[in-house]
Structures are given as structure tokens and as C-alpha cells.
């Protein structure tokens, strides 16, 4: 039996340094971590601890200087840019703090975009199914400007899900939302994990957001320094305070 079959994304001794000489900054120091399939992981840590770099390397958006990244059983290092682009398009989904919807396109057209970019014509039923998954079946014809911030982020999630990605990456998905819209988005992410086994990895600054995850990974100065399972928001906030005062 393949011991890695339960792993969605694996990092082995991943290191990433930016700049050279006096401007050199080490963002990740030989990070090794496995994200299990069908689970929701939050990544937390003080500002500059390497969270976004970890997410970018894990999602194949950035290449580490050394170490291995394996997504859905595929080692990314040896892949050509074209193969890496295809893997990102087919196997991973992204959601960012900025919703990045195209303002002239309806919700439906935005959701169908990843398929169009892959040269496929989105089937209306597929687009409807994706919008229904995020509770917006009735809003397909609306423009982004006719939707609330929380609804726009849900459209962005529907767009990320239309290719049925093996892993969903979210970088501060609630960062631009008020707390009630943010909770709506977090409940949706939690439901996708519980009902569809959607492997999800989310970077956040917010202990309340991280408390929706199964596992919370803590980074400090480019290293994984702790991992908590199903912690409360309070336990996460306390751990963060200790890291921030130690920094
Ligand atoms: N493109 C880049 N060029 C130079 N330095 C970078 C670049 N991206 C990140 N860094 C540096 O690498 C370190 C880690 O950055 P990263 O964005 O991963 O941290 P973070 O934990 O996500 O921070 P924040 O919470 O503030 O978003 C920081 O010191 C940052 O300044």
C-alpha cells in the first residue's frame, strides 16, 4: 500500500530565500510537512514568518531553492513550466484575499473562466453546480458589483472549484470581509471539507478563522514550530501571542 495515499500535499525540506547579499531574506528554512487529504489546515504565524511563501511553494506558484514539493502524488521540481501550469490548472484551486473577479463578467461567466482558459467550453450545468455548491444558484446572472463582498468571495470559491481541484489553497480568504461575511465563507470552506472531502490549506492571521480548520500549523522565522489539532480560537490566539512576543 502506498504510504502517501492519504497525503494531498507534501513538503520535504523546502527552503526558499529571496534576494542576494545584504538584501537576502530566508523565508522558509527546510520546512517538512504533510497535509492530509480531505482535511482543512490553517497556516498561522507572525508577519514575515513565511506563510505566503509556504502556500506559494505548496501550490506550485513559486519554486523552492531546494527540497521537494509533492502535490497529489506528483513531484513538482522536475516539471517544465508548461507541465506545472497544467498541473495548477487541473489539480489545484486558489482563492485570495482580493476576489479577483472580472467586473464586466457575470458570476456564471467568472465561474466558467478556468475551463475557458483551459480551452474547454464550460457546460451550463457544470457552472450551475459550482454556484449551487456555494449557495449562489440564484445569482448566476449578477455582475460582481451587484453582489456583497461575501457573495463575491463565494463566486471566487465556485470558480476555484469548477475544475474539481484535488487541493484548494486560500490566502487570507476573509481578509477583505467583515466578520459576518467572513464567517459565511469559513462555514462554506468547512462544509466543503466535511461533505465533499475537499482538501483545503488556508493562510490566515485570524484565530477565529483558523479555528474552523482541523489542524493549525504555526510558522515562525521560516520554520514550522507547532501544530494544534482542532484548537479553540482562544488556544490559537494564546499560541500566537507567545510566538509574537518571542519574535
Ligand atoms: N518576492 C519577495 N522578495 C523579497 N522578499 C520577499 C518576497 N516575498 C517574501 N519575502 C520576504 O520573505 C519573508 C516571508 O514572507 P511571507 O510573505 O512568506 O510571510 P508571511 O508570513 O506570509 O507574512 P505576512 O503575514 O506579513 O503576509 C518576509 O521577510 C518577506 O519580506
From TrEMBL:
GO terms for molecular function: ATP binding; ATP hydrolysis activity; transmembrane transporter activity. GO terms for cellular component: membrane protein complex; plasma membrane. Keywords: ATP-binding, Nucleotide-binding, Transport. The keyword Transport applies. CDD domains: ABC_MJ0796_LolCDE_FtsE. Residues 9-246 form the ABC transporter domain. This is ABC transporter. It comes from Streptosporangium minutum.
